[in-house]
TrEMBL record:
Native source organism of the sequence: Lactuca virosa
Membrane topology: Multi-pass membrane protein
Residue ranges with Basic and acidic residues bias: 145-156
Superkingdom of this protein's organism: Eukaryota
Family the entry assigns: Belongs to the MCTP family.
Keywords noted in UniProt: Calcium, Membrane, Repeat, Transmembrane, Transmembrane helix
Pfam entry (one): PRT_C
Protein name in the entry: C2 domain-containing protein
InterPro entries documented for this protein: C2_dom (IPR000008), C2_domain_sf (IPR035892), C2B_MCTP_PRT_plant (IPR047257), C2C_MCTP_PRT_plant (IPR047258), C2D_MCTP_PRT_plant (IPR047255), MCTP_C (IPR013583), QUIRKY-like (IPR047259)
C2 domain mapped to chain residues: 1-107, 235-355, 396-520, 561-685
Annotated transmembrane regions: 785-803, 815-845, 929-957
Gene3D superfamilies the record matches: C2 domain
Residue segments, region Disordered: 138-157
PROSITE patterns the UniProt entry points to: C2 (PS50004)
Amino acid sequence: MNLKLGVDVAGAHNLLPKDGQGSSSAFVELYFDGQKYRTTVKEKDLDPVWNESFYFNISDPSILSNLTLDAFVYNNVKDTHSRSFLGKVSITGTSFVPYSDAVVLHYPLEKRGIFSRVRGELGLKVYITDDPSIKTSDPVVNTKSVHEPVKNSEKRHTFHHLPHETQTQAPANTGVPPAPPPAMRYGYEQIKPNPPPQPPKLVRMYSESSSQPVDYALKETSPYLGGGRVVGGRVIRTDKASSTYDLVEKMHFLFVRVVKARDLPSMDITGSLDPYVEVKIGNYKGVTRHIEKNQNPMWNVVFAFSRERMQASVLEVVVKDKDLVKDDFVGFVRFDLNEVPLRVPPDSPLAPQWYRLEDKKGDRIKSELMLAVWIGTQADEAFPDAWHSDAATPVDSSGAASTLIRSKVYQAPRLWYVRVNVVEAQDLVPTDKSRFPDTYVKAHIGNQVMKTKTVQARSLNPLWNEDLLFVAAEPFEDHLILTVEDRVGPGKDEILGRVIIPLAMVEKRADDRIIHSRWFNLEKPVAVDVDQLKKDKFSMRIHLRICLDGGYHVLDESTHYSSDLRPTAKQLWKPTIGVLELGILNAVGLHPMKTRDGRGTSDTYCVAKYGHKWVRTRTIVDNLCPKYNEQYTWEVFDTATVLTVGVFDNSQLGDKGSNSKDLRIGKVRIRISTLEAGRVYTHSYPLLVLNPNGVKKMGEVHLAIRFSCTNFVNMLYTYTRPLLPKMHYVRPFSVMQLDMLRHQAVLIVAARLGRAEPPLRKEVVEYMSDVDSHLWSMRRSKANFFRLMTIFVPLFAVSKWFGDICMWRNPITTVLVHVLFIMLVCFPELILPTVFLYMFLIGIWNFRYRPRYPPHMNTKISQAEGVHPDELDEEFDTFPTSRNPDLVRMRYDRLRSVAGRIQTVVGDIATQGERMQSLLSWRDPRATAIFVTFCLVAAVVLYVTPFQAIAALIGVYMMRHPRFRHRLPSVPVNFFRRLPARTDSML
């Protein structure tokens, strides 16, 4: 086997001008294993494109990992027949991959020496091949390029399959050309011919200390969306018309609205018929429900057929009569797709018309069918409720009545904390009059049950004064039920009295004002029979203080990934600061989740969650590379929130029906504070899932995201506000209470969304809300430990540097440090201005290297790459554990619970350190801008103010009287808590 190293030189970007006229004439020289090749010269071009391929012989494959590929970029100087250095790239043999895994990567150009000056990037695709048909390249100058493999690679890896907004394609597996675009117009728009193809923006490499395999990293793309082509986060408009759906690729659909029919002929012996309508185009078919014994039926159903999948130019709408053996033909209407009008919102919907039906011979009959046929896009009002051809298999017509495949927007219920303060009870009447009861109060709302402590008082008037907390959702369907029970013996309790309180009658509050207590009469139920309870009133009563606390934010998701921080009470909501727009474009390379007809496939849909609004795309059936192209919008109230997007496989469409769980394919989390306002982020996110066999890439999802700021002042003001509402600091909950309440809140949200149509199932809600993020995991504990150690790396480096200074390893540096130290000792007022000015300069310097892409899950910092199988078995073990014996199970569960708390504490410490690092890293561009501005102002103020006055002021402020202290956190603390950490990148 003769292995070869293939190198495709794609192009370079932003090269340094060297010819004295603001340009360069660049070429590339490649060196590998004693072989040398050279590209052609691109005259006067700082962004040259070569697209040339070269092949090196690999003399000894066993030493391949020790070899290096060097690529030097030079400027050709014609006058002197010389060359000047523009940069170089070195790639070690350990990075070489097979051709099937190779992609074009843009490497930053490196310096040749310390005094070299370079800039720009070089795009290379490096791979190993054993194709015998490939000949070794000409060792002089290769002016030929192997076009076909490069094109195929771009199609597979560089999102070249995203066409222009008006481009139509045939299905990839049929080879049939697309149907011609319609020539007629409706409104002011006409489908235009395909534009000439342009090279998409390829994968870009970013240098980070936490680098992971390229296959797990983000890929930046430059797709054509509704607003134009996206290049570097900016939209380059291709036409003057604006589009509501400007973050997705514009897809055209053939809409067919079947309204009703009249004067249908009688087909049965009874003199009537059971009509239904069948809409067919090519091998796609949609069927309405049949209406029994009705000659003037009404359906009002809309069908949507994806134009890029159409393989026919004629639309047939057939009316049939439902029969037990064979359905009878009634009549049909035909439409030529070239004559179908194009509708452009906000034009009014196309009015339905009456069409005379034709029989099989083509003769018109008396019956008529009311239809409306037009071509539209996702912006059409009929799109959400339509039956979609790409959401059903071509041979399955029963999907027309299914709502499990449609896109929907869900509104999560508004959650309240219910605080029940059980004060005391009076005049209890126990069954056994010879003893004083051991009483406790049991309270439950729906499935939530809580108990007070048991009071063993020698009295019939027990006193508890204990708070019980619950979660309730509007509208309040469950009642608060309290029972006073007597513990007669071990495992035997007796109800002494009960009271039922409707939550709708409970007082609401938005602050910490005192709620007046009330006495409630207790009723003792006496069983008469199985179906009826007779209630006898006694003089027993209970003293309660009940309220609905609206001043808290009810946590229904992990605190690290909260998508909403507002309190329940709407009167406490602040104005919006911006708008978040999400375009769910497509998914590629999905892993098959099921088998159908002997082949692997998936029926996928996406779910996005932010605030109270959940969205679900339509289910694309039987497709491993689905195109959704659906756009959604949210109001943003706080930048310290996270958008979560998940991809799932719909398991409700097969024979198993609703008994199967929807399988998770992966999810993406994006923190709003890491997004620049107005920038369009178009990235392909790898879908990473951790299972008992290790981390696995399930495919990639392509998203377009834009955050638009509507009130810049309010947005900056939020950085000074507390992260959570005021009540969380005035009357805080314990960690145990928050965990319990969060668990109940997730169950309530899952139950409410599971009752929608189509239902958002419990497993989907739990996966999107990270319900298991607080459980013990050895992998997470190690990841948090290494995150913590990474924080101390700069301290270790400073300590080592200071040790070198003390040891005089570099005499010049040591002398300069001594001079600086003596100067600061003599002039102590320069210490703080120097520190703040130094941080200001670092922040300004780091602005050049600020992240240009949103953070994503990182397998390296999550310790998911080389995790031990035994640790994975422990992580995916049930809770409680299924291990025997019982004693080991009890101790094991206790250890996991305690270790989970320790894990959280370690993670919180690491989070604080990472927030400190993010002050100057421009991860949150607004926060860093605020801080560097503060540093500049502080440097000036501290310079003009005597140091003694500043020190005295700080000391007096730190030791100020409690009277002058506020229970809410200070402005610096609020600002610090809003800074982003690397929790967003944790799996």
